[in-house]
Amino acid sequence: MNTRPDWTTTPIGPDILRGALDLERTGRGVLPHRLPARARQQIPDGQLAMAESQPSGVRLAFRSRATAVELDVIATKRVYPGAPPRPDGVYELLVDGRLAGRASAPDGDTLTIDLASGTAHSRPGPVETLRFTGLPDVEKGIEIWLPHDETTQLVALRTDAPVSTPQPSGRPVWLHHGSSISHGSNAATPTGTWPALAAALGGAELINLGFGGSALLDPFTARAMRDTPADLISVKIGINLVNADLMRLRGFGPAVHGFLDTIREGHPTTPLLVISPILCPIHEHTPGPCAPDYSAMSEGRLRFIATGDPAETAAGKLTLSVIRDELARLVGQRAATDPHLHHLDGLALYGETDHDELPLPDALHPDPATHRRIAERFAGLAFGDAGPFAVKDR
For residue 391, what are the contacts with CB-CB under 8 A and spacing of at least 6? Predict the structure, then answer.
């Protein structure tokens, strides 16, 4: 006996996709991107190309009476030889904002990245079907949050009742840019990254441009932010510049000015919050570059170390403490003529006492509990009554 419901297949397009800046049609489905095509043409390395295709904060959003939902996907599984296996990405289904189901794709394309040699190769894999059942038989808002750290092609969306495009929520759009910490590294779920948690606490619609290893003041990222409609904007600057050993103090200030100038071209009076780095002991006073600790990898653990020389800060090498001081000075200078520009010290989100209680497991990224703590601190400081994102500034 065939008990399969009568499915409605809904085309996956921008009308039901939130948090992505572009949607690429591939030979197998559609691939959400968090940078537009023009910016992607200027990406200089595979790290950012991979990071921007990982759909942190991207979700399908629609309304329906559906009690069952199927989503066909092709997930990209990352393999790092010598490192512990990565967990499968998590898909979360929310009904009217509340979690109603989780699923994972156990197989898919495979991307093998050799950290020692810097090489990578890929292997195609199968389409997987995710199923969510037992949903209430009432008209409701449904969101499916895609894995924050697993590139995902969307192949087909099926429901057992028709789908409609949701009306605008009326919530302010928060556009955020940052590093792997903002991307969600070491968070367990897509709604568990600190920006996703903070957006929920602050009542905002998130567009997350947190890119693992790639918050590097790239001009094409600033232009993407300039051209993206937003009510609230934040940029978290620092850790990637240190662990990539990308620039010196002489270039840092002008690069920050240029990044903010570009954003202001499209958002001249939008509340703009500049956030300095959270505590990261390996780089507080030691420059980059950052590297995997291969002795830890041989024990099946992933851990990072700083390989620079603290004495080189005298020659302009960047550390987190240097960046915090410079950002505070620079934002204070600009705020004299830009009353909508604000500064937040990252140590107010996660500092020494937090590290004593909740140390960074790999010496670089927060765990799920720390993501929540950072989110709660940010929500209070940014969205609270005295914060730059409070209602009075919208």
Answer: none
Residue 2 pLDDT: 43
Q: Which of 200, 208, 202, 205 is nearest to 183 (CA)?
A: 208
Distance CA 113, CA 116 (A): 9
Closest CA to 193 of 63, 54, 341: 54
Tally of CB atoms within 10 A around 137: 10
Would you give the distance in Å from CA 375 to the centre of its chain? 13
* Beta strands at 232-236 and 173-178: parallel, antiparallel or unpaired: parallel
Those residues whose C-beta lies under 8 Å from the C-beta of residue 269, and which sit 6 or more positions away, are 340
- How many Å from the N-terminal Cα to the C-terminal Cα in the chain? 57
Question: Residue 53: helix, strand or coil by DSSP?
Answer: helix
Q: What is the pLDDT of residues 163-210, one digit of tens each?
A: 999 988 899 999 999 999 999 999 999 999 999 999 999 999 999 999
Strand stretches in 115-168, DSSP E: 119-123, 128-132, 140-145, 152-159, 163-164
Report how far residue 174's alpha carbon sits from residue 97's, in angstroms, rounded to the nearest whole number.
17
Q: Say if residues 13 and 23 touch (Cβ distance below 8 Å).
A: yes
H or E element at residue 249: helix 249-266
Residues of the chain with pLDDT under 70: 1-5, 115-116, 392-394
Mean of all residue pLDDT scores within the chain: 94
Decide: 279 and 355 in contact? Cβ < 8 Å. yes
Pairing of strands 232-236, 163-164: unpaired
User: Measured between alpha carbons, how far is 44 from 25 in angstroms, rounded to an integer?
Assistant: 22
Pairing of strands 119-123, 108-114: antiparallel
- Looking from the CA of 111 toward its CB, the CA atoms found within 13 Å total 21
Phi, psi of 202 (to 5 degrees): -90, 0
Q: 16, 163 in Cβ contact below 8 A?
A: yes
Model confidence pLDDT, tens digit, residues 15-24: 999 999 999 9
Residue in the block written with tokens 């009510």: 231
